[in-house]
Amino acid sequence: MLLKEKQALIDLANTARQRAYAPYSNYPVGAALRTKTGRIFTGVNVENAAYPQTMCAERVAVFKAVSEGEKEFEVISVVTNNGGFPCGGCRQVLAEFGLDTIVLLADRNGNLLKETTVKELLPEAFTPEHLGK
Ligand code: THU
After folding, report:
1. CB-based burial, 50-78: b 16+ in 10 Å, e otherwise
2. Catalytic annotation on 58?
3. Please, what sign has the CA dihedral across residues 81, 115, 40, 100?
4. What pLDDT, in 10s, does the model give residues 60-105?
5. I need a labelling partner for 35 at 20 to 30 A (CA). Which of 53, 66, 74, 104 fits?
């Protein structure tokens, strides 16, 4: 993946991040997920007055993609104020669709701080294979 492609995906996530609904944490998160077919789905965190009903940006992006018929992912960029890492729940949801998905983490300025994979973020993952799928 070319550096300029990475930056473009980070910039998309950062633009989406402006649409985050995060009045409680004030920690807006944006994600941009590129499928193997080249389609891009963005996501933002959507908080709720009933706090546990909050949904993370990464999962919004994954669920948008799956609901549009895309289940094979190449790379996801995640932008936060400070380059925060995906939570455990989002790692598990990403793992469902492939351990080799690349994960780009960037800060509010769009600086790429870390490039990793779902496999690295969630070692020994529980996957569909464990259920015989
Ligand atoms: N958040 C995400 O959107 N993705 C993550 O992986 C970590 C946390 C959101 C949830 C909540 O709205 C805010 O960040 C603070 O936890």
Report:
1. eeeeebbbbbbbbeebeeeebeebbbbbb
2. yes
3. negative
4. 999 999 999 999 999 999 999 999 999 999 999 999 999 999 999 9
5. 53
